[in-house]
Amino acid sequence: MFVLAANAFAQSAGNYPDKPIKIIVSFTAGGTTDILAREVANQMSIRWKVPVVVENKPGAAGNLGTEVVGRAAPDGYTLLANSIGPISINPTLFGNLAVNPQKALAPVALLGDVPNILVVPSSLGIKNWKEFLAYAKSHSGNLNYGSTGIGTTAHLISFLFAQKTGLDATHIPYKGAEATRDLVAGRLQFMFATAPSVVPLIKAGQLNAIAVSSKKRISAMPDLPTLNELGVDIATGAWFGLFAPEGTNPAIIKKLNETVVSILEEPAIKQKLLGLGADPIPMNVQEFTKFVRNDYLLWVPVVKASGAKPE
After folding, report:
1. Distance CA 87, CA 307 (A)
2. What gap in Å lies between CA 39 and CA 45, rounded to an integer?
3. 3-state DSSP assignment of residue 73
4. How many other C-beta atoms are found inside a 10 Å radius of the C-beta of residue 126?
5. Which of 17, 136, 172, 178 has its CA 20 to 30 Å from the CA of residue 268?
6. pLDDT tens per residue across span 9-57
């Protein structure tokens, strides 16, 4: 019986995929997660000659899509494209999730890393890190920073930044793009925002960039220093990945990973993603699994210390 079951298991992996694949996106169409998922899905479909369909399941801060895939059959035909918030932050932020992504999902592949840029309104006249620190210290207790919502990376990176630099700053949560608009208007003093959302405003002279939160400088702004270079121990941002239900055949996960990695390594695809502000970083399954776990552990104390509560 065991031999027959093992043979069937191996055969199912060998024939994969032989029917349409669905990729659930936990956010609305048009966002970074959705864009990356559709690019990868299109390339998968071309290579495997089977339909790879993207379906948006937004809601509950990304938890709805996570729950759908976490409860799906672990056969490799229902996958999840998700980001740092639902995977690394929400398990601590919410505490009582119906489906815990750290337990119910198997990491497949990293799709892209999107850094956050520390930006200030150009009206402040702050051009660099030294000037920013001088301003921050002279306005201690009167600094406001914005975010796209409580518990988002924009909120928590800013909180972590204030903690590590000793800044006395107040968090002002917004719902989406209103935060950037208030920053441009000078109603906020600083903010950490994803590169794609602020690079056009920086180039237009409406915002000034001070530093980037990634481990390395970004190609779109090669002269912009990282926080690590400036002596601030922060090297994180927003990342996006592909997941399968826990219990999915490891051979299927390996095949998915190798396909995604080969897609990301294609020069045309890589340049397209870089143009979107997403840095494709190919990782094998073991590397991505370790990455996901370490990122979750990084944010647990930050979420708790921030006192953030679900909106």
Report:
1. 19
2. 10
3. coil
4. 21
5. 17
6. 444 577 999 999 999 998 878 777 888 899 999 999 999 999 999 999 9
**How many beta carbons lie within 10 A of that of residue 188, not counting itself?**
24
Long-range contacts of the stretch 257-260 (C-beta < 8 A, 24+): 257/108, 257/109, 257/284, 257/285, 257/288, 259/44, 259/47, 259/48, 260/40, 260/44, 260/108, 260/109, 260/111
Write down the domain spans for the chain.
2-113+238-306, 116-212
* Max intra-chain CA distance, the chain: 74
Q: Could you report the per-residue pLDDT of 236-284, keeping only the tens digit for each?
A: 778 899 999 999 999 999 999 999 999 999 999 998 888 766 788 899 9
H/E segment holding residue 191: strand 190-194
- DSSP annotation of 187: S
Q: Position of tokens 């520390």?
A: 118
Asked if residue 69 lies in contact with residue 243, where contact means CB atoms within 8 angstroms, the answer is yes
Listed in sequence order, the residues at least 6 apart from 171 whose beta carbon sits closer than 8 Å to its beta carbon are: 144, 145, 146, 147, 155, 158, 159
Tokens of 287: 């590397």
The superfamily in CATH containing domain 2-113+238-306 is Bordetella uptake gene, domain 1 (3.40.190.150)
pLDDT at 165 over 70: yes
Common-topology check for domains 2-113+238-306 and 116-212: yes
Tokens 């002596």 appear where? 231
> Which structure tokens are listed for 279?
């840095």
Burial of 135 (0-12, 13-18, 19+ CB in 10 A): middle
Q: Distance between CA atoms of 25 and 285, rounded to whole angstroms? A: 20
What is the topology classification, in CATH, of domain 116-212?
Answer: D-Maltodextrin-Binding Protein; domain 2 (3.40.190)
